[in-house]
Design a protein that fits this description.
Blueprint lengths: L5 E8 L1 H8 L4 H4 L5 H13 L6 H9 L4 E4 L9 H4 L8 H11 L2 H17 L5 E2 L2 E2 L7 E4 L5 E7 L7 H13 L6 E10 L4 H5 L7
Parallel strand pairs: 1-7, 6-7
Antiparallel strand pairs: 2-5, 3-4, 5-6
C-alpha cells in the first residue's frame, strides 16, 4: 500500500486582503475561480463572524485551480449521517453529501469511517483537545483538479496550531482514501507578505 505524505507548505498573503476580509469585503473570493460551493459557504459564514475567520480557506481557494471544490467543517470521517444522508440540512450539507457519494462512494466512505472510528477508540487518550475528546476530522478544503486528483488542504493562519484530531484526519485520508483515489494532503501555513516565515513559525528563532 502506498503511503501518502502530509506536505507542509507556506503561502504569503497581502495584509490588505486580510483587512478587507475582516471589514466584510469578500471580493477576493467571489471574483476568483473557486467553486460556487466554496464561495457561497465561506461568504455566508464570514458574514456571521466578521473577523479573520475563514480568510485562510478563502485565500487558498482563490489561488488554487480546481474543477470542483468544497469547504467543510462536517464530521464526515466518523458520523453515520454522511453515509445515510439522513438529517442533513439542505443548503450546504446535502450538496456536500452528494459530492461524497459521487466522488468517493458509499463503499469506500464506509471503510474509511470504520478505520477512523477504530483508530479513535484505540487511541482515545491522545484525542483530548480543549477538555473534550475529539474524533478525527477532515481538513478545511477538498478540491478536485482537472486530472481528477483530490487535494485535501488544512489552512492555518499565524498563531493557529493544528490539533491531534486534525492531524489524524489528514493521515487517515492519506492512508486509506489514498488506496482508492489519487490524493494529496497539505498543511498550508499562511503568513503576511514581507514577513520572514522562518521568524514567524519557529518558536526558537529569537532564542538562538
Amino acid at each position: 500500500m502506498s503511503k501518502i505524505e502530509i506536505q507542509n507548505e507556506f503561502i504569503s498573503y497581502p495584509e490588505s486582503l486580510l483587512e478587507g476580509w475582516k471589514a466584510g469585503d469578500h471580493s477576493m473570493l467571489t471574483q476568483s475561480n473557486a467553486s460556487d460551493y466554496i464561495k457561497n459557504i465561506l461568504t455566508t459564514k464570514a458574514k456571521t463572524r466578521q473577523n479573520r475567520r475563514f480568510f485562510g480557506e478563502a485565500y487558498i481557494a482563490s489561488k488554487i485551480e480546481m474543477t470542483e471544490g468544497w469547504y467543510n467543517s462536517f464530521k464526515w470521517l466518523t458520523a453515520d449521517k454522511w453515509l445515510t444522508g439522513e438529517g442533513l440540512e439542505s443548503e450546504f450539507e446535502k450538496p456536500f453529501h452528494e459530492a461524497l457519494m459521487k466522488h468517493i462512494g458509499a463503499s469506500v466512505l464506509s471503510k474509511l469511517q470504520a478505520k477512523a472510528n477504530d483508530f479513535f477508540y484505540t487511541h482515545k487518550g491522545k484525542f483530548i483537545y480543549e477538555g473534550h475528546y475529539k474524533k478525527p476530522v477532515a481538513p478545511d478544503l477538498w478540491l478536485i483538479d482537472k486530472k481528477g486528483h483530490f487535494k485535501f488542504i488544512e489552512s492555518k493562519l499565524p498563531g493557529d496550531t493544528i490539533a491531534p484530531h486534525q492531524i489524524a484526519g489528514l493521515a487517515l485520508i492519506g492512508k486509506y482514501l489514498g488506496e482508492s483515489y489519487p490524493v494529496s494532503i497539505t498543511l498550508m501555513n499562511l503568513y503576511p507578505e514581507n514577513v520572514d516565515p522562518v521568524k514567524l513559525y519557529s518558536e526558537f528563532y529569537n532564542m538562538i
